[in-house]
Amino acid sequence: QFQLTESGGGLVQDGSSLRLSCAVSGRTFGSYSWAWFRQAPGQEREFVAAIRWTGDKYYSDSVRDRFAISRDSARNMMWLEMNSLKPEDTAVYYCAAVLKGLQDLRIGSVYDVWGRGTQVTVSS
Q1: What is the rounded (10 degree) CA torsion for 26, 28, 31, 34?
Q2: CA distance 82 to 85
Q3: Residues 119, 8: contact at Cβ < 8 Å?
Q4: pLDDT value for 30
């Protein structure tokens, strides 16, 4: 079993950018699908972005054209580039992984491994 560790969160102003990182430890990257989810206080966890093991990328409507997911298998890293941040993007962001990932990657229960999260706060 491998572990995921998020980093890069912080407090930023409306319109700013942040890049979140997800580091993989304990196992080779291999043919995994990866995703970012977020959870704001008092709200359910929601899908943000995913990258299938084939390289296909998926985004929620709320972040499309502002966020970009990427990965580097050789470095065992995944990133979420967030631009034009808005106060409604404030949440704890989690990375997640699933072997292969043939299912709908927007569903949280698909994923086997989760990180502990990193806080992103966007002030107005």
Answers
A1: 50
A2: 7
A3: no
A4: 64
